[in-house]
Amino acid sequence: MMRTTALGRxxxxxxxxxxxxxxxxxxxxxxxxxxxxTKPCKRExxxxxxxxxxxxxxxxxxxxxxxxxxxxxxxxxxDLGGKKNFHNGAGGTYDCIALMAYYVVCRxxxxxxxxxQMEGNLFLPAFRRLKFxxxxxxxxxxxxxxxxxxxAKKCAKWNDYRMTVAPYDKDKPIYYEFTxxxxxxxxxxxxxxxxxxxxxxxxxxxxEFLHARLVRxxxxxxxxxxxxxxxxxxxxxxxxxxxxxxxxxxxxxx
Length: 254
Hints:
11 helices; 6 strands; alpha+beta
C-alpha cells in the first residue's frame, strides 16, 4: 500500500515512484539504442514538480515532461551505446536530456540554479563516496590520471565524447580535454544552450570532493573544447587561475 497523509491524500513521492498512468516501460522510444532516465532523475523531477505545482496539476505536468523526453529521443542519435555505455548512467547523457525536458515544460517555474542543483544531486554521489581521496598526494594523483585514461578508452569505444588525456607528469597538473560532448551537441540541436552551465558546473564540485580543483576556461558548449586541468587544492596552480562565474552562469577560470 502507498503511504497517505493524515488526511488520506496520496504522497506525491509515492505517486511518482509507483504511478499507474504512463509507466516508463510504456514510453514509446527505441530501446535498442536509447535508455530511460534513471530512477534518481525521475525522483528529482517529481520533487520539483511537487514544489512548483498544486496537486491537481502534477500528473499532467509529469506526463508532459515524459512526452517531451520521448519527443527529444525521436530524432536523437542512436549510436551512444544504450545501457552498456557508462556515460548513460545517473547524471549522464540521458538524465541530462530528461532535465532539459523538465526545463522546456516547466520553463516558467524552474531556473538554471535549480537545474544545477538537480544535476549535482544526480552526478555527485559517486564523488562523495571518494572523500578519502586526496589528489595532493602523488599516489592519488596518479590513480586519478589512470582513471581518466580508462575513461578516454571508453569514449573512443562509444564515439560519444572525444577525449584526449595528456601523458602523466608528476610535476604538473593532470590535463585532459573533450572536443565533442553529446550533451552539448543535444543542447545545440534543440536550442537549449542556456541550460548547459547548470549541467557543466557540477564538474567543479566533483573535483572538490577529491581535495582537487578543476581549472577550466571553455567547454564544448561555449567554445571548441572542454579543457580540464586538475590539480590538488593546495597546488599554487589554483591561485594562479582564480575561478569566477561568467555572464552566462558558467563556473570557469582565467
